[in-house]
Amino acid sequence: MCIRDRSVVAGPEHFASVIVPGTPSVFSTPSLCGLVEKTAAEWIAAYLEPGRTSVGTELVVHHTAASPAGFTVTATVRLVSTDGRRYVFEWSAFDDAEQVGSGTHERFVVDSEKFMSRVAGEARPKGTERWKRRRGGSRCVAGRGGWGAGAE
């Protein structure tokens, strides 16, 4: 089956106010992202050979409604395409009252040992030229006239 869902009850550890003091005590966008990633990763893991894992490479999030404490938030991922080691999911999330989010998520299957070996080999001070080159690949942009990092 190409669909999987996972639920969590919104509690203080999930609140936006834990991340940014002074913001509402509701289910945060990072918590929603984590729920989506975990759901997709668990789906892929069920089909992987030993020594393989998946890593998230892209997550598009439309967080459209706030979920208060005690509401159950459920993320559902649906595999929409594969291309070799690349898996693309569409996702949606609902709480006890309404849809709270949607988007897409991309993961790549990697060899666990090779991946961690490469990560360990790349650990170096931020000032190195390679770090500066690779850093340019990151991009975060909020919709509707919001903030952006890496958006020119």
What features would you describe in this structure?
The chain is α+β, with helices and mostly antiparallel strands. It is 26% helix and 38% strand. Strand 4 (86-94) and strand 5 form a beta hairpin. The radius of gyration is 17 Å and the shape is globular. 18% of the residues are buried. Residues 135-152 have low confidence and may be disordered.
Short description:
The protein has 152 residues and is α+β, with helices and mostly antiparallel strands. It contains 4 helices and 7 strands; from the N terminus they run E-H-H-E-E-E-E-H-H-E-E.
How would you summarize the topology of this molecule?
Layout: E1 3-9, H1 16-19, H2 29-45, E2 52-63, E3 72-83, E4 86-94, E5 99-111, H3 112-122, H4 129-135, E6 140-141, E7 148-149
Antiparallel strand pairs: 1-3, 2-5, 3-4, 4-5, 6-7
Rounded radius of gyration (Å):
17 Å
Spans of at least 5 consecutive residues whose pLDDT stays below 50 are 135-152
What's the rounded overall pLDDT mean?
86
Main sheet record: 5 strands, antiparallel
Shape: globular
Straight-line distance between termini: 41 Å
Keywords for this entry:
single chain, two-stranded antiparallel ribbon, disordered C terminus, five-stranded antiparallel sheet, 152 residues, 4 helices, 26% helix, alpha+beta
